[in-house]
Amino acid sequence: MIIIKTGLAIDYIRESSRIVAETLAMLKLKVTAGVTTEELDKMAEDYILSRGGYPAFKGYPQGSDNPYPATLCCSVNEEVVHGIPGDRKLLEGDIISIDVGVVKNNYFGDGATTIAVGEISEEKKRLMKVTEESLYLGIAQALDNNRVQDISAAVQEHVEKNGFSIVRDLCGHGVGKKLHEAPSIPNFGRKGNGPKLKTGMTLAIEPMVNTGVYQVKTKRDGWTVVTRDGLASAHFEHTILVNENKPEILTVC
Ligand code: MF3
Ligand code: CO
Which residues surround ligand 2, an ion (CB under 5 A)? Predict the structure, then answer.
């Protein structure tokens, strides 16, 4: 069942999402060669707590024997998503995808961005640009009476037209009182298919785009997803509210 949000629920998701956006904006200023991903993680956690929120990924999923251990997912170069922060120092030429979730007032917000470390290759620049564009094209489809795969198809078409590939094993999702709610939002599909979208649905749309093949694998830590061919990957994500005319992006500050 896809939950329709109204009133206070939307206000709370908006508030958590704003903290997500503020955290990412703060981190953008901190990403530089020599910083470690665990230093970024600490700054993010301190910031979220100072805003009265709690890091949503930490300890997720509840009751698991390998819960996610950190505030951020920091995925560098060939890492696609769910990279665990550690003592790895960022190097000039890297790209880092940072994903963050916040829960406050029992409602969640979820967002991600990919950031260049200093000067990066033309190919990585294009990968980042196409991935972000595909996110906005997907968001533009999040309209009352459209279908979930209208989002998926818009993302896939833009990515493949530009010679990159879209990850299939991971999807966007509804977001609200839980981090992951129905519907699942694949980044590939056929226009007109999937559940109908309605005003008041809150969705996390999150294309993961690879330079080379779309296939991925998970490392032995049980979390870090990497590209099979070792080529770079980018990830952008917004939490949005479905509307009649124009979706509202909630992960903004
Ligand atoms: N935005 C990602 C997702 O929706 C991050 C999840 S990390 C996890 O899947 F630790 F919470 F799983
Ligand atoms: Co998400």
Answer: 110, 204
Alpha helices in the chain (DSSP H): 7-30, 37-50, 122-139, 148-161
* Cβ pair 202, 241 in contact under 8 A: yes
How many angstroms separate the CA atoms of 234 and 99, rounded?
Answer: 11
- Residue 82 CA, ligand 1 centroid: distance in Å: 7
Atom of ligand 1 nearest to the CA of 170: 9
Model pLDDT, residue 244: 93
Cβ atoms of 233 and 79 closer than 8 Å: yes
- 90 confidence band (pLDDT: 50, 70, 90): very high
pTM for this predicted structure: 0.98
Q: Determine the distance separating the centroid of ligand 2 and the alpha carbon of 62, expressed in angstroms.
A: 16
- Looking at ligand 1, which residue's alpha carbon is closest to its atom 7? 57
The DSSP 8-state label assigned to residue 226 in this structure reads E
Q: What amino acid occupies position 107?
A: Y
How many CB atoms sit inside 10 A of residue 25's CB?
Answer: 12
Domain 7-249 architecture: Alpha-Beta Complex (3.90)
